[in-house]
Amino acid sequence: MALESVDIQSKLQETFGDHVKYFRTEYDMFVLEADVDVVYNVIKFLKEEPSLNFNFLTDLCGVHYPDSDVNEQFCVVYHLHNWYENKRIRVKAYLNGSNPEVKSVVSLFNCANWMERETFDFYGIIFEGHPNLVRILNMDEMTSFPMRKEFPMEDSGRTDKDDRFFGRTINNLSI
Predict the structure, then answer these.
(1) Which of 43, 84, 139, 155 has its C-alpha lying 20 to 30 A from 23's C-alpha?
(2) CA angle, corner 80, sides to 59 and 82, nearest 5?
């Protein structure tokens, strides 16, 4: 019997109630949102429940929504894959902007180690219980998190980034 999205939703709602919500399909992938305080348990359930068997974490990343409510300024997105049924699922957990913290899933998936470090490095999201939460790509001395929206995209002093060189002009005026 094929694993259907309605079955996944039913099992999650039976187990977690109102802590899991906004079930939908986006681009042929089943998506849900979980409260930050239960997202670890949701991921664990999706992995260990024999009828679900989402045994592979394909991706974990962060998103910054600076204009959102303070309780939803950051999001951690988990992509899981059930190899046997070839079914994928996306789980989102929104975090508080002033204190973006979520429990680490490294104990469930070893591959989450570097994914969580990269998310910390670029967004400043703290993964509680991570075995070595230090910067992975940026310099250790860096005090900002470059994927946050308040971080400037370009160095304004660079002349090689002039808009005219990239065809961004209106009526021969640089925009």
Answers:
(1) 84
(2) 140
Question: Residue 43 is encoded by which pair of tokens?
Answer: 């991921």
User: Domain residue spans in the chain?
Assistant: 5-153
Angle, CA of 7, 13 and 19, to the nearest 5°: 140
Phi-psi region of 134 (alpha: psi -120 to 50; beta: other; left: phi over 0): beta
Query: Do residues 119 and 60 lie in contact, with contact meaning Cβ atoms separated by under 8 Å?
Result: yes
Least confident of 72-81, 115-124, 126-135, 152-161: 152-161
Distance CA 31, CA 17 (A): 16
pLDDT score of 175: 47
Q: How far apart are CA 104 and CA 63, in angstroms?
A: 16
Architecture in CATH for domain 5-153: 2-Layer Sandwich (3.30)
How many Å apart are CA 56 and CA 60, to the nearest integer?
11
Q: Which residues pair with 170 in a beta bridge?
A: 173
Q: Residue 134's CB: how many other CB atoms inside 10 A?
A: 9
CA 92 – CA 151 distance, rounded (Å): 23
Other CB atoms within a 10 A radius of the CB of residue 41 amount to 14
How do beta strands 173-174 and 169-170 pair? antiparallel
Mean pLDDT over 42-67 rounds to: 95
